[in-house]
Amino acid sequence: MKLGSNTKLKMPSGGSPGGRPERSDGDGNDGYGKPADMWSLGVVLYVMLSGMRAFDGDFKIEEKILRGLWDFDLPIWGKVSQAAKSLVSGLMTLDPKTRLSVDQVLEHVWLANAGS
Predict the structure, then answer these.
(1) Alpha helices, DSSP H only, in 1-116?
(2) Among 26, 65, 68, 99, which has the minimal tally of Cβ within 10 Å of its Cβ?
(3) CA-to-CA separations, 29 to 53, 93, 102, in angstroms, rounded
(4) What is the 3-state secondary structure (H, E, C) of 47-75?
């Protein structure tokens, strides 16, 4: 099956740490689609760059996700470039309408400078 630009996925991704902040609104908007995938990419990139989960600890993980309670406070982030942190921040933006798109990620300075 080929997914079009307006295709919305219907299968839940589970309750893993870093699940998307979008939720079903009861009007057929189930919160799945490219913006949710971009959020997941941000969560994976956060782990790859820091070796730590963005959402962890004593506080309820789901509430942390819904409120966007993550940061770059760990010492490891001092060794990560501002461009990489900018990409993670853009991907882990709570509002799916302002979250980075696939095209914006591909044009992001961190990826554009990767070959130089």
Answers:
(1) 34-50, 61-67, 82-91, 102-106, 109-112
(2) 26
(3) 28, 19, 21
(4) HHHHCCCCCCCCCCHHHHHHHCCCCCCCH
Q: What kind of architecture, by CATH, is found in domain 34-112?
A: Orthogonal Bundle (1.10)
In angstroms, the Cα distances linking 32 to 51, 61, 82, 86, 97 are 26, 19, 29, 24, 13
Q: What is the pTM of this model?
A: 0.76
Would you write out the chain's pLDDT as a tens digit for each of its 116 residues?
444 555 555 544 444 445 667 654 444 455 578 898 999 999 999 999 999 988 876 668 888 888 888 899 989 999 999 999 999 999 999 999 999 999 999 999 999 887 66
